[in-house]
Design a protein that fits this description.
Layout (H helix, E strand, L loop, with lengths): L2 E6 L3 E6 L8 E5 L5 E4 L5 E4 L3 H4 L7 E8 L5 E8 L26 E2 L6 E2 L1 H6 L3 E4 L2 E4 L3 H9 L1 H5 L8
Length: about 160
């Protein structure tokens, strides 16, 4: 695993990577601030900031990886990953025909209409991974699914569509 993007100025570092599942998580760490974190749809974790590698809790099937880069203010900044099997936990064959979106916008969990993953709506909104189509809210696990949906919403809302993961 390695960083695919790294931009830094005097106050921030924005770092991202290409997850093996196809997502491209990215976070922004502010100088002197809290660690920046991202949890990918497949369960991989990504942290940038002080003691990044120590903040990740090892678990079966996951490997800790790190990379250090020099920030725009001259200090070393650590990026750490906890990388597992990098697959979506809901097998494609188990995807039923259920509601992919939420009409009221307030739900405990939603289903990404592209891949079938369970998504926490508040996290998706915070990450900019939310789209409203015909009065129904749809939430996405990552930018890849969000962009695919935006290119052809009718395809993913068709009742005969079976999610890709």
């Amino acid at each position: 695993m390695h960083l695919t993007s790294f931009e830094s100025d005097e106050q921030t570092v924005t770092a991202g990577y290409a997850c093996p599942c196809g997502c491209t998580p990215s976070v922004t760490y502010e100088r002197g601030g809290e660690q920046a974190r991202s949890l990918c749809c497949c369960g991989n974790e990504f942290v940038v900031g002080p003691d990044a590698e120590r903040s990740l809790q090892p678990r079966d099937g996951f490997v800790l990886e790190t990379e250090r880069r020099t920030s725009g203010w001259g200090a070393a900044v650590t990026a750490a990953w906890l990388v597992g099997p990098s697959v979506h936990p809901e097998p494609a064959g188990e995807h039923g025909h259920h509601d992919h979106g939420q009409a009221d916008g307030a739900a405990e969990a939603a289903i990404d209409p592209v891949c079938g993953m369970r998504v926490e709506p508040s996290a998706a909104i915070e990450e900019g991974l939310h789209h409203q189509q015909d009065g129904v809210n749809h939430y996405f696990c990552g930018k890849g699914c969000f962009l695919d949906f935006g290119d052809d919403p009718a395809r993913y809302l068709d009742p005969s569509y079976v999610p890709s993961m």
